[in-house]
Fold methylmalonyl-CoA epimerase.
Amino acid sequence: MIGRLNHVAIAVPDLEAASAQYRDTLGAVVRPPQDEPDHGVTVVFIELPNTKIELLYPLGENSPIAGFLEKNPAGGIHHICYEVEDILAARDRLKASGARVLGSGEPKIGAHGKPVLFLHPKDFNGCLVELEQV
Amino acid sequence: MIGRLNHVAIAVPDLEAASAQYRDTLGAVVRPPQDEPDHGVTVVFIELPNTKIELLYPLGENSPIAGFLEKNPAGGIHHICYEVEDILAARDRLKASGARVLGSGEPKIGAHGKPVLFLHPKDFNGCLVELEQV
């Protein structure tokens, strides 16, 4: 069911410093920051040959990243995203297995403009898992 | 400098349950467990089309995963691994930038039989980063 690893998302306390480190020290391709007000984050995409790293920084009130950075002031891996072909079929299969889908259970449009869902970390080895329909 | 994301490593409290979940619920290709006594882990590789997930479970005394699971009983993402072409050149560039290399600073042979180094999480946004020479 799951396909490619679409991205690994890392919450960072200093977006400029983290971008400079990936660009200058690690020598990666780093895109300019993008504000995503609907998701409460500013995102910097790092393009690796086979997948992406997303650096996440809080934007506005009630950012989903703010609480994470309070608990993890140095930053940390926030979630991983797997691609699926049919997000509703994936959701129904997961729910039938007893896994909990976060929020209303209906897909939202994610930062890439595609339908996404998040799964409960307690059901997936402590990892917040995003599914994105591609 | 960094190339592909080689893998994301997830420490899990129940290797059999986590393997079954990735195979049966998420429909991924899951390989049989491999004991890696030199690294104090039993590993299950999950092969995605573009990268791998490594499920890690403690093996023997002094496993590097045991303390992580004590702090994170549900499991969690333990590290991410980037590929590099020349691990000694990568190490020297990182050290020159002020980043700390864990252990002796000399590459060890990792679970894939290739030279690896680990970088200090405090220098990389709270993420434990492995570099593997490919």
User: Anything to note?
Assistant: Chain B has a mean pLDDT of 95. The domain at 5-133 of chain B is CATH 3.10.180.10 (2,3-Dihydroxybiphenyl 1,2-Dioxygenase; domain 1). Helices of chain B lie at 15-25, 66-71, 87-96.
